[in-house]
Each structure stands twice: as C-alpha cells, then as structure tokens.
Amino acid sequence: MNGNAPAAMTANTQPPTDKRLIMLSALAIPVALLSTLSAKALLLLIAGITQLMFYGHWSFEWIAPGTSVRGAWVILIPAFGGGVIALMARFGSRAIIGHGIPEVMQQVLANRSRISPRVAILKPLSSAISIGTGGPYGAEGPVIATGSAIGSLIGQVVTVTAVERKTLLSAGAAAGMTAVFGCPVAATLLAVELLLFELNARSIVPVAIAAAIAQALRFSWGGPAALFPLSTSDIQSSPVSSAVAFALIGICAGILAVAANAAVHRSEHLFSRLPIHWMWSPVLGGLAVGLLGWIEPRIFGAGYDVIEALLRAEYPLAVIALVCSLKLLSWVLSLGSGTSGGTLAPMLIIGGGLGALVGAACNWIGGVEMSLGLAALAGMTAFFASGSRAVFASIVLAVEITQEAMVLWPVSIAAAAALGVAYLLSHRSIMSSPVEGRGLRVPMSFDADIFSQLSVGQVMEPPGNTIPGSMIVSKLAAAIADHDPTLSRRTSLLVTDDKGQLAGIITRSDLFTALQAGQAHVEISHIMTRELVCAFPDESLHAVIDRMHTLGIGRVPVVTRDNPQKLVGYLGRTAILAARQKHWSEQNHRERGWL
Predict the structure, then answer these.
(1) Position 216 in a domain
(2) Looking at the 3D structure of the chain, how many domains does it have?
(3) pTM for the predicted model, two decimal places
(4) Domain holding 136: CATH number?
(5) What's the burial of 506, exposed, middle or buried (CB within 10 Å: 0-12/13-18/19+)?
(6) What confidence score (pLDDT) does residue 103 get?
C-alpha cells in the first residue's frame, strides 16, 4: 500500500475470548465456594433466630415456627422483626428492602453489576431476621442476593468488563440457589432468564461450573438428592385424561400470579399513603403477619414443611385452602410494608395449594384421575413460571427437587399455559415490576445483536457519485448550493484519483473551512482527508460500528481486502439504521399468506 492509500483500521483492545472464558471459569470456583458457604451460614442463622424467638432457646436445628407454644405472643414476633429491619434500613442501607432477585436485577441493568459490600452484609442478615421472626418468605431470595453480591465483589476486585462482572454475579446467584434447593440446572437457567438475558458460552459455562460446585458441596454436607420426593403413584397419571387438567391448573395459576402482582403494588401504595414515617410500615406489616400466623401458624417462615406436605397430599382440602390463602395474604402485606426476604418458597406454597384445589375439582367433576401431589407440583411450577417469567428454570426446578423425570410433561403443560395467560394479561412480572417501577426496562426476550449477525456487505449502500480530486473547491460548493441531487444527498463525498481509485473523502465542513480560508480555487485533492478509516464487505457490522463510535466518525468507505483503494460501497448512518429497521420488520411485519 502506498503512502496515500486509505487504511482499514481495526480496534482489538480485548484479549482473545477463549482466554477470558478460562479466566471467568477459574473465578467461578471461589465465587461458588464462598456463595455456598454463605448460604449454609444463612440457613443456620435463620434456624437459630427461629429457635430463639419462637422457642426461647438457641439452636441451629431447623424447625418450623408453626409448632410454637407461645400463644398470642406470636403476633408480636414478626412485628419485632419488622422493627429491626426498619432500623437496619434507616441506618444501614434501604437497598436491603425487597425480596432479593429484583434488587439484583436492578444492579445488573443500572449499575454495571456492582453491589456494595454494605448491602452484601446487611441483606442476608436482615433476611435472616425477617424469616427467623416469622416473615412469610423463603431463604432462596436472600441467598441468591448474597451469592450475587459475592460474585459482584470479586468482579470489582479483578479487572473485568461489566458483562464479565455480570457473569460472576450470576455465578454466585446460581451457586446460592443450588445450595438451598439442590437444583444446579434450574439455577443456571434462572440466572440466564433473570440476570444474564443472553445465551452464550462466555456466560453459561462459568455459571454452570459454579452451580455444579455448589451441588457437590451440598452433597458432601449430606443434602438429599430429592429435596421434596414424590411417591411413585403420584407420577403415574394418564396423559390423555389429565393433560387438559394440567393446562387448567396453568391457566388459573397465570391469572393468580398477575392478580398477586397487582395486589403487592396495591399493598405498597396503601402503606405509602399511611400518615406515618416509613419505618413504621414494616412493624405494621409484621403485626398483620403475626395476627394471620396466630390464626394459622403454618404461614410463618419459609414453609418448606408445607411444600413437602402439599406434594405428599397430606392436608385436607379445607386446610390447603386456609393455609395457602393466608400465606398469600401475609406475603402480599409483608412485601408491601417493605421487609426483606425471598419469594420462591411462598410462590411454591401458593401455587401448590392452587394446583391441589384445581386438581381436586377436576377429580370431583369426573373424567380425570389426578394425583393431588402431582397437581400441587404442577401448580407450583405454573405459578413460579408466570410470576417470574423464568419458564425454563421453573420446569427444570420441578424435576430437580423431586428427582422424577416423569413429571416433566405435566409441569411443562402447566407452565406453558400459565406463562401464556400471564403474558396476555400483563407484561410485568413479580420479579420485573419492582425494577420497572424505578424507571428501568427489563429485557423481555433474548434478542441477539442484529449488528453482530450482519456483514457490512449486506447493508452497505452503493458508492454513489464520486468526485475527482482535480475538481475545484468553488465548483463543488456551487453544485451543492444548487442542490445537485448527485452531490447534495450526503454530507461527505468520496474522492477518486485519475485512475478511479479511492483517494480520500471530503465533508461539507472541509469545504466551508476552505472557502473561509480563501481556497476557493484550489483542487479538492489539496483539502480532502487522505488517511481514511475504511471497512471491508465481509466484516461484522458491529465491529465497524464500534470503530466508528470510538473514532467519532459517521461514515466509512467500503473497500476490498486485496485492494484497499478499490471502492465497493459506502456505510453511513442511513444504512446502519436500515439494518435495525430490517430486523424490526422481520419480527413485526405480517406478510400476506396464500389464503
């Protein structure tokens, strides 16, 4: 290439992708170890606080608060917990308020996946107090938030990109969820659907490694393979007779999930309108939970024993209706009042109760023989899928917590029906509503970057009319002033030499500067830009756009690789926007069919 030839510049400031994947996978190991240890510590702390508040002694043995003998005094225990959380939020950080996953989503979307050390400490502590004092939450939300914070902090210690930090954050979340539920695949999918918002090896491999390590540690501590086993008879239902019933469970669960989300927002609005300081809201919410728990003690705490009883069909239908409806009411009031805890366990209880009741109704109507345990599992999956919109994670979770592959088809039917109904009724979920309420937009799909899928040659415009370098400045200025359609359409024009080869580019700004400097009678070749930034037809459109953005230019000539002076195209903002419009049209434009 001679000295005047344009150069197709490239910008590659990042190390090769495979080396970054190895680094992230290596970092996922300590993230998994620390997240699993923190999950174990949090579970022990919840057990200790539960024993102290409901039974009057300190022990790390996990026990349900529903068997407490404190009588009416239990009404005050959740209120006390709400007061402590209010003090922590007032003098620590208000970021501890919430049910875990939405707060992590917010940090991913708005804060480049950065979580502060203060929140990393206060969030699990406040959640342990909330659940240990009878709050109707599960431990999985705080555990996910804690694991996410660990991954984020490690991602802030080392030098990584924001996307790589998001991967480490998601690895911690997956490890934490696995430590509680023993569901490495579902935890990986949950991270993909609610935190990563993408599907590629760079993200999935480190997250899957972290989840697998957490599962190995869980087994080493004696954790059961199936957290909530089903009996053999529960999974032997006829697909022909029960498929419609499972779909009906999903439809009811989808409607209930949308209604529950609306109820939570109404509850938040109610507490915000009270003529009291916001610190009193968690106390009042705790009093409401305490009163409901005094009526039905099984709504207190995480309720893992209730989930197991629902899957074993141990409760009469009247008890199921009472426990699950009061759990829903206490959960809505507690979330609205501004406390701290997780939503997965309450969603499983509420959905499980709904599934069992709908299954019993189908059995009563006739024409179907359905196990109430399997109906409860379908309801759990459907309510979680429609409430979180993490449909793949919810389906796999049902398989992993029961270790029964035969439940896959019924829970898939229920989850798909629930998701469809919920999507038609509302575009917001229980997980995304708190985030979008703060002005952020949560991705609803895994749309790939259309610019990375197209080459420059697919979208570039023809070179158009070029001008010779021997042209006089005043003549070009006059043609543009007269609105010559061949020259005035673009703000910059490509210049060729006497052999028709690309020699440079000239902009209207260059012309204006030359006229002001008294160069009206000089040739264009004397004022044009010779050192050009060019693109090749086979280059990724994304790579060229990134180059243009970095260098602050709005258009580039397109040349061939074997002859960088042979002009074959022109790439400007119009062509780039046309590529985006083409992608939108393919998704939304309806083409007339044969009929």
Answers:
(1) yes
(2) 3
(3) 0.79
(4) 1.10.3080.10
(5) buried
(6) 78
